[in-house]
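Q: Give me the 3D complex with N-(iminomethyl)-L-glutamic acid.
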Amino acid sequence: VEDGVIVALEDDPAADLVVDVAGGAIVPGLVDCHTHLPFAGWRAREYEQKVTGVPYEEIARGGGGIASSARSLAVAGDADVLAQARSVRAEMLRHGTTTFEAKSGYGLSRDGELRAVRLARELGADRVTGLFAHAVPPGYDAAGWMDEVDRLAAEADVDALDIYVESVAFRNEDLERLGEIARREGVPLRAHVEQFNANRSVPVALAAGARSVDHLACLHPDDLAPLAAAECAAVLLPGAEFLGAEELAPGRALADAGAICVLATDCNPGTSPVSSLPLVIGLAVRRYGWTAREAFAACTLNAAWVLGMEDRGSIEVGKRADLVVLDGPVEHVPYRFGRNPVRAVIAGGEVVA
Ligand code: NIG
Ligand code: FE
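A: Here is the predicted complex, encoded as structure tokens.
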């Protein structure tokens, strides 16, 4: 490693510093391309309601869900929001995440969304996505709020645009419109689709030129082959499937069909309060029937592609020296489930954890 970049893959007797990794595997720094940082507080009470059988609609009617996190964010000061986000970010780093994306989405107003984007930048996210179309704010209908989204997209400093398409959120026609907005702004389009219901949003996202479609727990069988053939990533979120009580995305079939398969935490206070990619790797291997190596590729090289960061994601000469030293072979990561297998984290050539 020289100046933060990998310069050779074999022993160099002239090296200034040699690190003995004691037989542990070295893998590329993990890339989390889908998180909902920053947010304020957690929603553990809702999780308990969910697992003990209270229906989602009832939780939402009682003021829970995205609206609850929006209220918490609105009343929290910048310093408190950043302190919480930094502690989650530190957890992610200890579990091997060297690159992460953050989304707005809990602002739910013009000023709130601009503030969320600003806080995501202050947090140091490598990519910031404007999820301005997350829930329809009170006093608007979907189309009316999309007019605001159009203005926000023009004004906000974001690297990508995202939308939540669901019966309780936005519609396929809003996704189509966000595609036009993203084209105009010259940023990638991403979309939360087929999370709780099959809305047939994948063909719409593909026609709109989306970089990724995320969730896919209710992917329609007819949409699998077109997605696999497209230059659009299938971002699977097994933490949200497991804790958020979603169906299971067809991970094995997507991989077999040649889709660009990606894994991320979806770290958020509602459906996936998960910060560890090794845990997500364990879930993906068990529940999709992936090999450990497929799972690692999905949250390194493939995830870097989603973020448009081709300077990282693999251990190759010329790439950024983002490296994770494990304390055993890669196959132990999913197998010894729930345990942190990370011994050391190197980012840009520096040991950071
Ligand atoms: O990715 N689907 C919408 N957004 C988040 C959850 C939001 C929340 O419950 O706070 C997700 O699962
Ligand atoms: Fe999400």
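A quick observation: The radius of gyration is 20 Å.
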